[in-house]
Amino acid sequence: MPPIIQVENVTRIYRIGKVDVPAVRGVSFSVNQGEFVAVVGPSGSGKSTLFYMLGGLTHANSGRVIVDGDDFARLSDAERTRMRKRKIGFVFQKFNLLPTLNARMNIQIAQDIAGQDGGDGKWFDEITKLLGIADRLEHRPSELSGGEQQRVALARALINKPAIVLADEPTGNLDTRNSEIVLRLLRETNQSLGQTVLMITHNLEAAAFAGRILHMRDGQIIGEDSKIRP
Question: Where do the domains of the chain lie, and which CATH numbers do they carry?
Answer without folding.
Answer: 33-51+81-225 (3.40.50.300)
